[in-house]
Amino acid sequence: MTLAPWLAAADPVEYPAVEPGRPLRFPEDHGAHPAFRNEWWYVTGRLGGGVPPTGFQVTFFRSRPGVAEGLTVATAPRQLVFAHAALADSATRRLLHAQRSARSAWGLAFAKEGTIDVAIDDWSLRMTDANRLATLIRAPDFAFQLNFAAVQPVLLEGEAGFSRKGPETRQASYYYSWPQLRVTGSLDPGSGERSVEGVAWLDHEWSSEYMAPQAVGWDWTGIDLDDGGAFMAFRMRGRDGTPVWAGATWRKPGGATVRFGPAQVRFEVQRTWRSPSTGATYPVAMQVQGGDLTIDLRPLFDEQELDARASVGTVYWEGAVDAWANGAAIGRGYLELTGYAGRLAI
User: Fold this and answer.
1) Phi and psi for 29 in degrees, rounded to 5?
2) Which residues in the chain show pLDDT less than 50?
3) pLDDT for position 35
4) Distance (Å, rounded) from C-alpha 202 to C-alpha 177?
5) Where do the domains of the chain lie, and which CATH numbers do they carry?
6) Among candidates 123, 131, 115, which has minimal Cα distance to 28?
7) What is the Cα–Cα distance from 226 to 221, expressed in whole angstroms?
8) Closest Cα partner for 98 from 279, 317, 320, 311?
9) Residues 31-64 pLDDT 10s
10) What is the pTM of this model?
């Protein structure tokens, strides 16, 4: 994601490259990789039970800006942590959003190695054992405390976790997903705490060079399918809207996995929405194809633009969507649309 403008003058630093053939190892690779430039843990899902259908997302970003690396003081900004949290409330058709940012110091903000354990003050995302996670978010307008239980193994994206993002091999990330997480917990959308349950998806990526120079942003989706499968697809877009690179992964019921390269992935716009706040136009309804699998994505509601200029310095659309095929609902997940309010810089 875009970093704050004052980081543009960062000192030169040599970041490690993402290279094919490096196997992902767990539990170590669940944790932070502080030598790399950027990293994020991204959990999205759908809640129900005690509330109308509600989308949620919580994302923690870690960045090594390459400044003050020679300083030994605890407050040197060698590692920065950002966090976003949001609720998409179908009853009110409102997106509730909050964000935080801090330098990693004094134990108040951190991204630990060896396990998922990231936090800014009382916001956190942590592994509680090998197959369980928990998050706690307390924002001015909402709060949630959610527990996630894995029912499937992690899903390695790309080539065994090496995910190309551009025409050059160095434009890549290490990337895995954890779909079909079972969710329990509590949610307060501003009107009182209620018990909830649902399904969620976790993405974890780390990289040093994520986007090709000719790319302005990306479209991404992660869908928990009702048959127990999972589908992820992305495309990196050029200035004229054409794909610079693309990829997709389909875990079928039973666990067999099919991966699709750039020529096999298509995103087609079905409908757009123009933000009254920023003037950006987003393709909020999309048809996504990976090989022979075609899915129509329909937003829970249109107004799910997220203004994160106060933390990572960008505006994008990140929304809960329903997945349809052949006239029937087949799943639910999230759609992320970046670079439509201006070129994304990482």
Assistant:
1) -80, -5
2) 1-10
3) 96
4) 5
5) 26-337 (2.40.370.10)
6) 115
7) 16
8) 311
9) 999 999 999 999 999 999 878 899 999 999 999 9
10) 0.92
